[in-house]
Inverse folding.
C-alpha cells in the first residue's frame, strides 16, 4: 500500500546553485530507485535557522513530497545522515483524508 510522505531537509548555506541542484537530483534519484512515485520537489530557498546547527545560522530548505512504501524512508535518511551537505532532515507520513461516509437520516 502506498503512503504519502513529506521529507524536509536543510542544506548548508555555502553551497552554490549547481551543488544544490546536484544534491536535489541525488535524493530524487535515490527515492525513484526505491520505487517512489508522484515526486514533487520545492526549493524553499535560503532562510535563517531558529538556532545554530553545526555552526550554521542559515540553511537552504528543500521539501520533497512523494508516495511509496515505508521502505523508501530508511535508505533516504541514511544517505542524508552520512552526507556532509545536509545539516538537518525530517520525514513525516502525511495523513490522507478518507472520503467521508454520507450520513443517512434514520427516522423511527
Amino acid at each position: 500500500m502506498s503512503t504519502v510522505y513529506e521529507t524536509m531537509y536543510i542544506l548548508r548555506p555555502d553551497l552554490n546553485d549547481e551543488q544544490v541542484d546536484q544534491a536535489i537530483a541525488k535524493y530524487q534519484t535515490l527515492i525513484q530507485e526505491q520505487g517512489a512515485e508522484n515526486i514533487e520537489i520545492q526549493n524553499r530557498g535560503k532562510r535563517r535557522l531558529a538556532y545554530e546547527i553545526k555552526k550554521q545560522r542559515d540553511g537552504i530548505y528543500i521539501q520533497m513530497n512523494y508516495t511509496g512504501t515505508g521502505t523508501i524512508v530508511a535508505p533516504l535518511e541514511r544517505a542524508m545522515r552520512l552526507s556532509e551537505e545536509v545539516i538537518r532532515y525530517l520525514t513525516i507520513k502525511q495523513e490522507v483524508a478518507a472520503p467521508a461516509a454520507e450520513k443517512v437520516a434514520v427516522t423511527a
Q: What stands out?
A: Helices lie at 17-33, 73-82. Residues 3-93 form a domain with the Alpha-Beta Plaits fold (CATH 3.30.70.60). The mean pLDDT is 88. The chain has two helices and four strands.
